[in-house]
Amino acid sequence: KICDNFAKSHQKEEIRLSIDSSLNEKTLIVKKDQRTNFLTQLSWLLWRNSLGIIREPFTFKIQVFQTIIVSVLFGLIYLRLEYNQKGVMDINGFMFLCICNNGFATMSFVINVFPVELPIFVREYQNATHFAYWMANLNNSADRFFICVAIIVLVVQCSLAFGCFLSAVAPSTNVALALAGPILVPLMIFSGFLLNNESIPKYFIWLRYLSWFSYSNEAILVNQWKGVKNITCAEQDMGFCFTEGEQIINYYNIDEKNYGLNFGLMGALIVFWRVATYAVLLIKANRR
After folding, report:
1. Backbone angles phi, psi at 195, to 5 degrees
2. What is the mean pLDDT of residues 187-197?
């Protein structure tokens, strides 16, 4: 009834005339779509993400607490490793565990970014691996420590980049999570730690070149063992006995000449997966 009365009233006619007049005067200007630049978009995404952290302080505290606990736990398990035959394998296992932990944990945080439209997740505050480094009695040279940190940072960035690509390709979070395992396991197997580089079948060798676990494992082993001369070889040790770091590097068929190249290739993988992610998102956006 109210609508019917309004339709018959003079107010309706006045509003219609006002709208027609505005259209005739061409006061409505349709502007071309203008997109903000990259820095503006990035600043707003970071601001939005920081608001999410502020609104959920308990989640942030849990993540920090979890990282510290895991680091201390690793340190206690591998506490003060000795430079002898048993310690060599324990140290190598510890370093590979750090690589895998940072790689898998990072991807689990970022893999659901695009399916659920979450902003960029800043993970650097969670990196507390340096606690365990000193507890495990790794190479105590300052330059070796900072290089080890740089390797872990590159592992994190590679995992972030690949996780973003996977989440961009997958139609949902469940699909992305289902794909992550079958893809990551072969990359980890062909890292050179679980399977010697010389034993990798030729038809799978291409997977090694896509594995940042391989590049980081080679870099971190060379960083730890190059120049080490104080490995104890007890009389009861049977068979071959490591006495210096170069022997360990050669045992894994690692070429020290590729040490710097491994850093560059990890950087190239970061750029590659970022560009691939952008291309996927661009294709999906244009389809809509």
Report:
1. -140, 125
2. 80
Task: Provide the domain count of the chain.
Answer: 1
**Dihedral Cα 191, 196, 199, 202, nearest 10 deg:** 30
Model pTM above 0.85:
no
Does 177 reside within a domain?
A: yes
pLDDT band at 34 (very low <50, low <70, confident <90, very high): low
Contacts of the segment 181-188: beta carbons below 8 A, 24+ positions apart: 184/103, 184/104, 184/107, 187/211, 187/212, 187/213, 187/214, 188/100, 188/103, 188/213
Is 129 in a helix, a strand, or coil? coil
248-261: pLDDT as tens digits: 888 888 888 999 99
Phi and psi at 84, nearest 5°, equal -130, -170
Domain range enclosing 224 = 34-287
Q: What residues are paired with 62 via a beta bridge? A: none
Q: Which residue matches tokens 């507890």?
A: 135
Residue 164 token pair: 């973003």
What residue has token string 């979070």? 173
The answer as to whether 4 is a domain residue is no
